[in-house]
Amino acid sequence: AASSGSASRTSATSRASAAPDGGTRTAVVLFTADLRVHDHPPLHAARRSADALVPLFVRDPAVDRAGFAAPNRLAFLADCLADLDGALRERGGRLVLRTGDTVAEVCRVVRETGADEVHAAAGCTAFARAREARLRQALEEHGCRLTVHDGVDSVVPPGDVVPHGSDHFAVFSPYFRRWADQPVRAPLPAPRTVRVPEDVASEPLPSRAAVPAVSPGLAAGGESEARRRLRSWLSRHLDAYEDRHDVLDDRAGDGTSRLSPFLHFGALSPTEAVHRARAHGPGAGADAFVRQLCWRDFHRQVLAARPAVARDDYRPRHDHWRRGKDAEADLAAWREGRTGYPLVDAGMRQLAHEGWMHNRARLVTASFLTKTLYVDWREGARHFLDLLVDGDVANNQLNWQWVAGTGTDTRPNRVLNPVRQAQSHDPEGTYVRHWVPELAGLEGAAVHEPWRLTGLDRAGFDYPDPVVALADGLARFRSARAAD
Ligand code: FAD
């Protein structure tokens, strides 16, 4: 299959060059997790084939019931919708918002406008695929054509590169080699004009004030912000990415791009991000950044092939995760950032405050929960999804599984030591002191081991003792795994 990312699948109904009554051809563009006008294959295709467009977003309660909605993401979504509406208005159009079942609402808009085609982006989750199948069937009954576009949410669509004899790659490195060889299509321009039929009713867009985030330091969303950030981050920080992406005590917070929420909501096209990074390169920074973007596609192709991994172990290891009161108490301490391990607590507090966490801290906090505390990865993944503004079924569940050893990591028994990780990735202790202000009085790397303080020194800090000694946690994990 073509991996340029521009492929599309169209339902059987034949295509006419003008509306059957000789009037205006109208197309509905269904926006889901693709909230942008640049490099948007469905919008581009619809604009080329129809005279009038209905850019539609449906607030579907089923999305909330499926656990995809969370206050931080709803707040960010409000920004994205407002920005998309603004971009469409600049082009003469607007965004139409409806609430209800997506399939029913699309059909309603098709009936109201006499639209003869619907364009939408392919999704990789079981939820998105089931919705697509229902939509296809319902639109066929209306005699309306559905075109589902690949390569909107990923650079190389799931299933486009597969190893011999399998429907997906289970190991990242060989996937990356094949992925990197694929040609990447040029990003599509935003349409210059968009004409929306006047009489199509829309609900008012939600304002960010009406959907308050739970994290006070949540970033602003929207395509304009995504494009501004992409441009400025690439020009100022891409070259240093290879060296700085794992540095936690990065005061400016620019060691990594922080583009993940924009990519999650599709306010930024991953194809355009790859294209622009490569255009800025060549260099180790651009190569490393593009490789990270490949991880998104890697997880998407695993999830598309094995939808159950959102819940079930990818490689079952028959773990007997700790349960009961003690495990509950440890889980609560982890969630609240009071495990007594400063780096773990710093990461968890960054998550609570910003709805985002540095990747190195995600790795350490997840390893601590699933290995040192030996608590089920599903508990951690749920907490992350409740707070992460980039919370994404493919990336979250599969990264959690990777760390827990039930996923695609080829070294499933590796355990990250939070003290050694802190010493390597936050050598001066800046990150920890910022997020754990109780320890701000401890200088340098001493902040990573407050339990070494004795007597009076220790009494000055209102900070918990470690929930478990690292050696005991490691022994418990190893004996559980040995019993497997
Ligand atoms: P950068 O370093 O600038 O990387 C650029 C982009 O590459 C990111 O925006 C992201 O889209 C992608 N990327 C980078 N690392 C990974 C990775 N390991 N897996 C997949 N894509 C990656 N990422 C999410 O987008 N959503 C999640 O819900 C999520 N949950 C995670 C849970 C755990 C336990 C772990 C260990 C990682 C998780 N990640 C998740 C991956 C990674 O931590 C974030 O993508 C990254 O921290 C985002 O910051 P950035 O945009 O500055 O990344």
TrEMBL record:
Entries under SUPFAM superfamilies matching the protein: Cryptochrome/photolyase FAD-binding domain, Cryptochrome/photolyase, N-terminal domain
Keywords tagged on the record: Chromophore, FAD, Flavoprotein
Residues of the Photolyase/cryptochrome alpha/beta domain: 25-154
Cofactor or coenzyme needed: FAD
Gene3D superfamilies tied to this protein: 1.25.40.80, DNA Cyclobutane Dipyrimidine Photolyase, subunit A, domain 3, HUPs
InterPro entries attached to this UniProt entry: Crypto/Photolyase_FAD-like_sf, Crypto/Photolyase_N_sf, Cryptochr/Photolyase_FAD-bd, Cryptochrome/DNA_photolyase_1, DNA_photolyase_1_CS_C, DNA_photolyase_N, Rossmann-like_a/b/a_fold
Family the entry assigns: Belongs to the DNA photolyase family.
UniProt name for this protein: Deoxyribodipyrimidine photo-lyase
Organism: Streptomyces hydrogenans
